[in-house]
Design goal:
There is one protein chain. The longest helix is centred in the last third of the chain and has 17 residues. The chain is globular and about 55 Å long. α2 crosses α3 and α3 crosses α7. The strands form two sheets. The protein has a seven-stranded mixed β-sheet with strand order 1-3-2-4-5-8-9, sandwiched between helices. It has a two-stranded antiparallel ribbon with strand order 6-7. By secondary structure, it is α/β, with parallel strands linked by helices. The chain contains nine helices and nine strands.
Length: about 290
């Protein structure tokens, strides 16, 4: 069964399916993200004739304390189930992954195969702060990590909290008082993320399929240098890396100007690698999403 959160998750952050045609995209969000980050691009693809499905990873969709005692295997199980579902709906499947979602997508490619191509948005190679690796042992004696205490992670934390609540005022004294609790992350969850990144380093050299990679040069979560490392490890002869000089981590979001290039380039990649390209046509009428 698909993951059903026991905590409150707004509708726009829940899993969704947008039905269109026999060519499908499985979209996988990243660590501390949710399906809200991919919905606008998914709507665009659906309106162009591509079916899209995006699961909600366990522990996601709310503040990061929900990662408590969630193992990485739960994330893997969820994307495997999402793939099984989408294969009942579509004849062809492309993968779109954002951040840690690119690693989950790589896992599916290596384990199952049969994909027409993979699109990576800001893939991650390593942790943004090396001290996170110390949590391998600390998780058993220190249950919570307070990232606001780390100068290197502060901007990233603010970015994640703002994603959940765009109207938040970080200068409000009441908000400042609540921030340590709002931003605390289970050390176990951070270490599970670290483990996923290590898995990724083993998977990148095995991805021999058409791949398109998007990367922002201002990304504070996934550095361009590390994305270049990933790109160089990919054995595929059909691969492309597109860098955006003034973009950050959320390349596909409407508030990021480069989304106007990312969306059509993603569609172009799909149409150029699909054997069912004649079925990818703009819909005359909008289709409701599940």
């Amino acid at each position: 069964m698909p993951f059903s959160p026991s905590y409150d998750v707004p509708d726009e952050r829940r899993a969704y399916t947008m039905h269109a045609g026999p060519v499908g995209c499985l979209i996988l969000h990243g660590f501390m993200g949710s399906p809200i980050s991919t919905r606008p691009m998914a709507t665009y693809l659906m309106e162009q004739g591509v079916t899209v499905h995006c699961p909600l990873l366990p522990g996601h969709g709310e503040y990061p304390d929900k990662f408590y005692k969630i193992p990485k295997e739960a994330w893997i199980d969820e994307v495997e189930e999402a793939l099984a579902y989408l294969r009942t709906q579509c004849q062809e499947i492309f993968l779109i992954g954002h951040s840690m979602g690119t690693i989950l997508g790589a896992h599916l490619v290596v384990k199952y195969g049969g994909f027409q191509g993979q699109i990576m948005l800001a893939p991650v190679y390593d942790v943004p702060d090396r001290r996170i690796r110390l949590l391998r042992a600390a998780r058993y004696v220190m249950p919570w990590f307070y990232p606001l205490k780390s100068r290197s992670l502060r901007d990233l934390v603010y970015e994640r909290i703002r994603d959940f609540n765009p109207a938040i005022d970080f200068d409000d004294p009441e908000v400042q008082a609540k921030l340590p609790m709002l931003t605390r992350v289970p050390t176990s969850g951070m270490d599970e993320m670290r483990q996923m990144l290590d898995v990724g380093q083993d998977l990148w050299p095995q991805l021999d399929l058409p791949i398109l990679v998007f990367q922002g040069e201002l990304d504070i979560a996934a550095s361009p240098e590390n994305t270049q490392k990933i790109f160089d490890m990919l054995p595929s002869e059909d691969k492309e890396l597109i860098l955006f000089k003034d973009a950050g981590h959320e390349l596909m979001r409407p508030f990021e100007p480069v989304h106007a290039e990312v969306w059509p380039k993603t569609l172009q990649f799909i149409t150029s690698h699909s054997a069912l390209v004649e079925t990818i046509t703009p819909l005359e009428k909008p289709v409701t999403a599940d």
